[in-house]
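Methods — Computational structure assignment.
A single polypeptide chain was analysed. Its primary sequence is given first, followed by the predicted tertiary structure written as structure tokens.
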Amino acid sequence: MTILDKGLSLASVKRHLFVAAEDFCRYRGPMSFAKLDHLIGKKFFVLPIINLCQLTRQSQFAVARLFWFIAACDGFYHAKALIGSLIWGGISVIMMVSAGRRADSPTASFMFFRLLAVLMLIIDLIRGAAPKEWAGIEFWIFVLPAEYAANIRTIPPTITTKSTRQVSKAN
């Protein structure tokens, strides 16, 4: 049984699909790479990163360097050859030193690299789903929050509850 058998016209089906797609992305017309990057960051990464920053009382740049360090350690863990181990080990040491010395310094983040990382994650998910080989997918899961955290410029203050404000006024 098809949709047309239910009495819906092809035009109404197209209109409903267009409205559903429009509700999902809130953009009209073709989506540019900047809008796609903004949508991915807003829907999946920015709010959890802000919550992590507020919970740990760290800056977004420190969180970005933390995720880059974790990604470098993951690359070192998955390195199969000696040269790969040396390269990823060196990158891990560099990330650890830079995270300690320049934790709150602003970092650069490029839209091209973020979209490339999203594409690589999607490719790894598709490739991993078929033969059930998921090794290496977590690297992109660490890289993406690092890049989107570096892109955030301000962290809003933590919302305090009413009981916390009353306790602070009492003291």
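Note: The longest helix spans residues 33-56.
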